[in-house]
Amino acid sequence: MHYEGNIIRPPSEANSILLQVTVGCSRNKCTFCGTYQGERFRIKPDDVIMADIAFAAQHCRRQRRVFLCDGDALIIPQKRLLNILTRIQEELPWVTRVGAYANVKSLKMKTLDELKALKAQGLGIVYLGMETGDDLTLKNINKGTTAASMIQMGRKAMEAGFKLSITVLLGIAGRERSHIHAQETGRVLSEIDPDYVGALSLMLIPGTPLYADHEAGRFPLLTPDELLEELKIMIADTNLSKGLFHANHASNYLPIKARMPRDKEATLKLIDEALAGRVSLKPEWLRAL
Ligand code: SF4
Q1: Taking a C-beta distance cutoff of 8 angstroms, is the pair 65, 16 a contact?
Q2: For residue 51, how far is its CA from the centre of ligand 1 (angstroms)?
């Protein structure tokens, strides 16, 4: 397989065939993100992508899923993306689901019918990095979008038939806006009602603008208890009809896996227990991105 630069994928795609169709991220401006620092975004040539699919056909026969890397595969023009998905179906007929990261911009660029066509061609799940539902924090982190657009595009992805997984970031609003960030994120998640929510805890990456802000004393990192308080408010304000709310990423202090709405009250109780010191938190050295 031809890989260039940093390859990242959602935790749930750990066993997927990682097919790199783009390099970098078409935005690459979020202040906390160091994944594609200095990487110029580009779509990989079709012949390289097709050669990788042919390689996977030979050597990845046990993997049932494909994940299209990097940061924003959905930005690929419709005809080319359909072509890639068709080739996956033809050459990897054992694959049951294809996934990709999406963002508001790429979801906006495609019509609902185009998204439905991608779904029909095998794209089954999209992962949307929302980070927060608080407009001021979205502006501060230079996400380039608003809560209203997140709601619109999240709903559009679901209407197209994709499974939708949304990532939010605990601690991203700093201390002063922690409460608002948690409430607004809960509100936006509830309005989208996705299939999965993954809450990660912010970890600062050297070289990013947010890291520099922290070093200069302009951005505080929350303590483990403050992060838990934030998570508690977020979960209390999130009403999903059937989704899974996960906070079990390696970056988190307290692993949580809740089926909503069934496990909501028990999860809030667990967080209270942890805040009272009756449930132990993950030690710092075990946390990672
Ligand atoms: S957070 Fe996502 S959209 Fe923002 S720069 Fe990183 S990969 Fe791109």
Answers
A1: yes
A2: 27
Q: Is any ligand 1 atom within 6 A of the Cβ of residue 25?
A: yes
| Span 159-171, pLDDT tens digits | 999 999 999 999 9
Q: So what's the pLDDT on residue 201?
A: 92
Q: Determine which residue's CA is closest to atom 5 belonging to ligand 1.
A: 28
The vertex-226 CA angle with 221 and 227, nearest 5°, equals 75
Alpha carbon of 17 to ligand 1 centroid (Å) = 22
Q: 71 or 31: whose pLDDT is higher?
A: 31
pLDDT of res. 285: 60
Mind listing the pLDDT tens digit for each residue in 117-127? 999 999 999 99
Which residue's alpha carbon is nearest to atom 3 within ligand 1?
27
Put simply, whether the predicted model's pTM sits higher than 0.70 gets the answer: yes
Q: pLDDT per residue over 122-149, tens digit each?
A: 999 999 999 999 999 999 999 999 999 9
Cα separation values, 66 from 124, 164, 243, Å: 10, 16, 22
Distance (Å) of CA 54 to CA 51, 78, 137, 156 = 5, 21, 43, 32
pLDDT (average), residues 93-98? 97
